[in-house]
Specification:
alpha+beta, 107 residues
Length: 107
């Protein structure tokens, strides 16, 4: 499995707004294109930063899935104009799970 670790620094005062749109619009759209999303994970030491994980079945499937999301009408005609102005910076670390990877989140 391919896993992106995505860290976002949101412009001061806009994290709650960004996360509201992210949770209600972006996450359902990413899931509709086959991506799995874990997050947002709120940085407890920095009120302007959050992290989320986004996974893909394989490296070969990653680009077409991303292209479908970022090339779709929801992103190009709505979300890009709403969300991008709120982002100060972001970083993506592309990882691959090892054969013994354990993916459990206790409740």
């Amino acid at each position: 499995m391919i896993l992106e670790v995505r860290t976002y620094r949101i412009k001061p005062g806009h994290r709650a707004e960004f996360i509201r749109v992210f949770e209600t619009r972006s996450v359902p759209a990413m899931r509709s294109h086959g991506m799995h999303v874990l997050g947002p994970l709120l940085d407890v030491e920095n009120p302007h930063r959050f992290v989320f994980l986004r996974s893909f079945p394989s490296l070969e499937e990653r680009e077409p899935m991303k292209d479908a999301f970022y090339g779709g009408e929801l992103w190009t005609k709505e979300l890009e104009a709403i969300l991008m102005p709120l982002i100060d910076s972001y970083d993506v670390t592309l990882t691959e799970t090892s054969p013994g990877c354990v993916y459990e989140i206790p409740r």
